[in-house]
Amino acid sequence: MAPNAPRSLLPLVALLFTLLAGCGAPPPADPIAAAPPSPVSRPAATATASPPQRPSPTPAPSATLAPATATPAPTLALATATPDPDAPPRVGLQVGHWKIEEHPEEQIRLRKFSGAYYGGYDEWELNILIAEEVQRLLEAAGVTVELLPATVPVGYQADLFVSIHVDGVTGDQAATRRGWKVATPFGASRASEALAAAIATSYPAATGLPADPQGPSYDMRAYYAFAAYRYWHSVAPTTPAVIVECGFMTHPADREVLFEQTERVGTGIAEGILAYLQEYHPADPDMREPRGLAMGRPAAADVPLYARADVSSAVQLTLDRDQPLVQVARADGWRLVFTHGDGWELGWLRESDVEILDEAIAPPHPCCGE
Ligand SMILES: [Zn+2]
Asked: Which of 23, 27, 209, 284 is the most exposed place for a label (fewest CB within 10 A)?
């Protein structure tokens, strides 16, 4: 499960979870699961596996996003994780919910978010089995891998970042809710979208698992580790990033694959990563530039923040003129924004109610714990 949701979304998410439909046929047998991935072309030589690494401290936050105005700042610092073209690609694999007790002060509420559970297993215990399988396959292909816990180093940079999670539901839904999904951050770069597309191709082929018919949620797109506009401990916006929900540990057929055929799950993710790296052009800054994010403020006093892009939907907050906003998406006369009051709120503003500012985006609080 993706712990991201601002408080105001939790009831909505809970509601969605109650509206689930069953889906899909049982997974077909998969003939290619055992095939090892082919090496990527870029690595120079060393196909030797290195031991799992603790995340090392990364440089100070590269900080700011380009405002998504018509003329994005050309000076946006590129997160070039591997400036040496002969160096192997470096991939960050995050084990969802691993070591949540180490979340820094700015993410203190996440220390309670242990995710899904089933049969005595907490989600992270399955996530790490999957991540280690992905790591093994990538390292065999000459890719350098960092296994990351729930806390992401400040402004984390790599050639790509994949967060690994599994879902879970309770009650009657457990018999029907199943399937995988992959999501990019809000304001995703084209590189993030290409990575998501590659995994969305390889994952069902390797695992035989169906896609969750509900698809990615706002929870996934607003995932805290992507949200450089909310947290310093997050992935640099120029690092291609996705979150994968590998299936539901609470569904019998999904569970059979997740627990008993974990190598297929790892293969599904690793092959997508390797396919992406084969096509990847690290020197192309446009690929890595986030899109659609901008800072703004209400265009007038007492502007309503709606739950949906619909004036008849609930008004979540009434905003002051000086309330900072981060636009994360746009749709047909509406802007989806985060704003910070007592906590983070995600909601919709009419386009005419927002004034976009030519200001860099950064988390609202001083960085803690570093
Ligand atoms: Zn999770």
From this structure: 284
- Bridge partners for 245 per DSSP: 165, 181
- The residues whose Cβ lies within 5 A of ligand 1, an ion, are 1, 96, 115, 123, 165
pTM, 2 dp: 0.78
Rounded to the nearest angstrom, the distance between the alpha carbon of 76 and the centre of ligand 1 is 31
Is residue 135 within 8 Å of residue 91, measured between CB atoms? no
* Whether residue 305 is found in the same domain as residue 283: no
- Helix, strand, or coil here: 164? strand
Q: How far is the CA of 164 from the centre of ligand 1 (A)?
A: 8
In three-state secondary structure terms, 65 is strand
Q: How far is the CA of 94 from the centre of ligand 1 (A)?
A: 11
pLDDT tens, per residue, the chain with 370 residues = 887 645 444 443 333 333 332 232 333 322 223 333 344 544 333 333 333 333 333 333 333 333 333 333 322 333 345 556 678 999 999 999 999 999 999 999 999 999 999 999 999 999 999 999 999 999 999 999 999 999 999 999 999 999 999 999 999 999 999 999 999 999 999 999 999 999 999 999 999 999 999 999 999 999 999 999 999 999 999 999 999 999 999 999 999 999 999 999 999 999 999 999 998 877 788 999 999 899 999 999 999 999 999 999 999 999 999 999 999 999 999 999 999 877 889 999 999 999 999 888 888 877 754 4
Quick check: is 301 in a domain?
Answer: yes
- Kindly give the distance from the C-alpha atom of residue 255 to the centroid of ligand 1, in angstroms, as a whole number: 15
Candidates 182, 167, 209; CA nearest to 273 is: 182
Residue where one domain finishes, among candidates 247, 266, 288? 288
Tokens of 125: 């215990």
CATH code at 304? 2.30.30.40
Domain limits at 316?
Answer: 294-357
- Helices and strands (DSSP H and E) totals, the chain: 7, 14
